Amino acid sequence: MRVWLILALTFLAFGCERTDYPASTDSQQVLGNWRLVEPTSKFSTTLTIEVDQPSGGTISGIYSLKLTGKAAVNTYMATARLLNSETGSLDVDYAGSTKIGGSVEEMQFEKTYSANLDAVNRYEITDKLRLYYEHAESGVLVYEKIK
C-alpha cells in the first residue's frame, strides 16, 4: 500500500503539465514568431516581432520594434515603441498592408485585426503573448509561439 501511495504522489508531482505560468513583461520574450489563437478564426494569422534596427533599437530605455505578419490575405507591417517593460506599456503604429483582395469575410477580418493591432497599448507574456487593445471595444489578441 505504501508503494502505491509513493507512486501516486510521484505521478502527481511530476506527471502534470504546468498551466499557471507567471505573467511577465520581459521585452526579450516578445521577440520571435507568433500565431494568433484568440480570437479564434479560420484564417491563419502570424506575427513576427523584431528589434527595429533602422531606429537604433534602444533609445533611452525605449525599444523600437518592427511587427510584420500575414493576416487572412495580406501581409502587414507596423512599428511599436516599448514604453515601459515593467508594466508592459506599448504604443503600436499600424503602418499598412499589401492590397490583395479577398472575400468579404477575409477583408472584414483583416480590417478588424488591423484596427485592434493599432490600438494595442499593453502586452503580457505567460505561455502565450497577450496584446491588450482599447478603442471602440477593449480586448486581447492572444498568440502562441511558433517553434
TrEMBL record:
<feature type="domain" description="DUF306">
    <location>
        <begin position="56"/>
        <end position="140"/>
    </location>
</feature>
<dbReference type="InterPro" id="IPR038670">
    <property type="entry name" value="HslJ-like_sf"/>
</dbReference>
<dbReference type="InterPro" id="IPR005184">
    <property type="entry name" value="DUF306_Meta_HslJ"/>
</dbReference>
<dbReference type="Pfam" id="PF03724">
    <property type="entry name" value="META"/>
</dbReference>
<protein>
    <submittedName>
        <fullName>META domain-containing protein</fullName>
    </submittedName>
</protein>
